[in-house]
Specification:
Blueprint (H helix, E strand, L loop, with lengths): L2 H22 L3 H7 L4 H9 L6 H11 L3 H6 L30
Helix pairs in contact: 2-3
Length: about 100
């Protein structure tokens, strides 16, 4: 991944975090407290100019009560397909001593 693309992704994630913070009516001090970091560090992450740790994104998702996918990709995860498997008709699994996986 090139540096320009990475910075674009960081700025998009940061913008989504800022937008949700604004929607919630919280200031940066409140978000810093909710994510357990300093307000200065929070401002750096929200600026999108520094790498954003996974744990910070997770704490933001918890605070906003959204899925992490919404912060990372801008939309919620959606099930696009599924398969129905009837008991006894599924694909076999690898067998290992001490592990019994019923099919």
């Amino acid at each position: 991944m090139n540096t320009s693309n990475t910075l674009t992704q960081l700025s998009e994630i940061a913008a989504r975090i800022k937008e949700l913070r604004d929607i919630m009516g919280w200031n940066t001090a409140q978000m810093a407290e909710k994510t357990q970091i300093t307000e200065e560090q929070y401002a750096l992450y929200e600026s999108g100019k520094v790498d954003i740790p996974f744990t910070f994104i997770h704490k933001c998702a918890v605070a906003f009560d959204v899925e992490m996918t919404e912060l990372l990709e801008g939309h919620s995860a959606r099930l696009s397909s599924y398969t129905v498997t009837r008991k006894g008709q599924g694909q076999g699994t690898a067998k290992e001593d001490g592990i019994d996986i019923p099919i």
